[in-house]
Amino acid sequence: MSKVKNLNGAARAPFKVIAALCAISMGTAMAAVTTSAASAAPATVQTTADASVQTAADTTDTSNEELEIAKSGLPSKTAPFDQTVAYFLWPYQWGTQNVGDTASPKQSTLQVDRASTADVNQTESASGNDADAPQTYSQGDLAAGEYGWKGPGTRPTEPNLKSLDAQIKLVKESGMTYVKTSYLISPLNAADPNCDQSVPGNCSPSTDLPDQIIQHILDAGLKPVIYFSQGNPDPKAVSNPDPNQVYKTVPSFTKQQVKDTISHAIQKFANKGIIWESFNEPESEEHWPGGNNKDEAKIQWIELDQFIGNTIQQYDPNAAYVWGNFSGPGKLSQYQDEMKAAHATALSGHGYWISSPEGPLASSPVSGYDFMDSEFGCSAGGTETSWSCGFDKIPKDSRLQGIWLIRQLLVKDIKGLNLASPYRMVGYDSFSINDDNDASNPGAVKTTESYDIIKNVTLALKGYSYVDGTFQNADDVYRAVYKNKAGKQKLVYWTADKPTLDNDEQTKDVTINFENNTCSSPPRPSRRCTRRPLPRRRAPT
Fold first, then answer.
1. How far is CA 150 from CA 16, 94, 182, in A?
2. According to the UniProt record, where is the region Disordered (predicted)?
3. What CATH topology corresponds to 81-95+145-464?
4. Mean pLDDT on 27-42
């Protein structure tokens, strides 16, 4: 992900904005989902959060809901809403690293700048802890993060699997089936943390934790999208890397080491329903130096993504292969010969930097291919999401982040994208939805209002698919009809309200008016909203 991290502290009070998002049963049922201004206390997965989202989900048991899968291997365009979301899990949160050298590997200490590697969350601020102060860890101490890490290190299995199991629990409580996570190939997870990462081939990638992660996901009955990535090791670890010898995204390993690791993963988990995705953001200079040079790319990421496709064809031929994983999905159209040669069944890209949650990518960039928005969420640039996610010296507001994310998820589904992966379930930066940064208790995930909003809307629409042609925008109120297999319908609507930096200190009550009937935010329990026929208007293009 080529994005700017939050480097600033939390010095201002949370925003006072009320926004409404209702999922209303067609007929006489009251609002099923409403976000309110009431703050929700952070909760761990072991407790019930005092959620600000109220849900009246259907009583129909959909635990055995049949998956609707397209020929591409992705969910079909008519799949229920809950099957169009793949939570982005991050089970590589916890690590140790060696910042000494091979002769004296433990002589140094690890200094982690929490201002650049961890989200400044309101829970820490409220407790009086100085989350911005650099904290020093001795060699071997556990810390959350990867940005700014210099030396080779390890990702221990115990704390990371604890975090993974907590994340899986949250996914299942949200009524979802799909998840996405990385098969990490990085010197930050080396088999021997005392190796010399400056010499290609001296370090070896460890497959222990990635293998256990995939197995845990499968054992939980979830369907994983597995992509390959390098994490964020020191990009200058190898001076002047030879593009014929190494892949510049992870120059500490030889090409053969990377290929052997990928081949191991595909063979080990063949015929288990994995959706494989290509290497992360290959055309991003941040993650793959020289990736935009197409001549060099032929012996770099194009070569590697071709190898992934060939290996899938050999060992897991019935699996989906989602090709691209681009930071800028608009560039995919420039590589149609390459995606075809690699046996791609679908395409993917990352949907950051949009000015409105109602304006994401509306269709696949290349005709004939299904598409997954495989990473999206907070991004810098003056948009609502940058403001609510803790940029520009403004504290993060999880409720506004959740409203932004759920609006995007709905519109991506409505516009026909097959699958979308909100970034990310836990993390140490501004992009995370929940928090897992307590070194004294790794794996104790604290949920937020953002998670609650996504969860409750998804549960309210579990088993419900968008009814084609019903999406409308009238007077800045968006609405769409969803229907389940039994014929029951729900009307989903929300306002186009966008808080700005100019009005962030004002309380802004948002009232939704629909066909002369009003549902206030939050709704009064004694009131009922009755449906009137939708006006016949053209859906926006």
1. 40, 15, 21
2. 55-75, 100-161, 514-541
3. TIM Barrel (3.20.20)
4. 31
